[in-house]
Prior knowledge:
It comes from Hominimerdicola aceti. By secondary structure, the protein is mainly β. The chain has one domain (13-56, 77-183). It has one helix spanning 91-98; strands spanning 12-13, 19-23, 41-42, 46-59, 62-63, 69-71, 74-85, 103-106, 110-113, 123-131, 135-149, 162-168, 178-183. Strand 5 (62-63) and strand 6 (69-71) form a beta hairpin. It is globular and about 70 Å long. It starts with 11 loop residues before the first strand and ends with a strand. 19% of the residues are buried.
Amino acid sequence: MANNKDNVSTGKPKVGGAVFTAVTGSTLPTDATTALDAAFKSLGYCSEDGVTNSSGISTENIKAWGGDIVDTPQTEKTDTFKVKLIECTNTDVLKTVYNGSNVSGDLDTGLTIKVNSAEHEDQAFVFDMILKNNVLKRVVVPFGKVTEISDITYKDNEAIGYELTITATPDENGNTHYEYMKKGE
Length: 185
C-alpha cells in the first residue's frame, strides 16, 4: 500500500469545547458526532499542550532452566490522559480538580473550595477534536479518576492551570476508553 499524506493529521480542539466530564452512569456517546448528553459539562480551555494519552504495558519474562525466555505475560496495562485545564474560575473545572463536594457557591455569591484528602470519584470524560480534512474524533472514557494534580503556579506571565492525570479503568466490557472517528460535513 502506498503512503498517503492525507492520513497524517494533528488534533485541534473542537469549537465550543473539547474536554467534558459527567457523573458515571450518564449516557455515553457511541460515535463521533452525536450531541453529548446534557449531564456533560465543558471544562473550557486547556493549555496549548492539548491532551496526552499514555498507554503502558508491563510484562514479566518467564525463563526456563538455562536462561531461555519461554513466555512474556502481561502483568499490568495502564491507560492515562493528561490535560492542563486553564479556566481557573470555571466552577466545573474546580469541581473536577478538588472533588465536587469540596466546591460550593459561585463567583457572584462567593466560592469556597475545601482542599482535603478525600479520594476523587470516577467520572466519565469525553475529548472532542477535529483532525485534518474535517475528520471528527471523539475519545470516551467511561470511568476516569483524577490520580495526579501537578503543581499549580501563580505567576504574572503564565495562565493559572490545573494539570491533571486521569487514569481510565475498565468498564463492564473490559475497555478503558473508546475512540470514534467520522468525516464531518
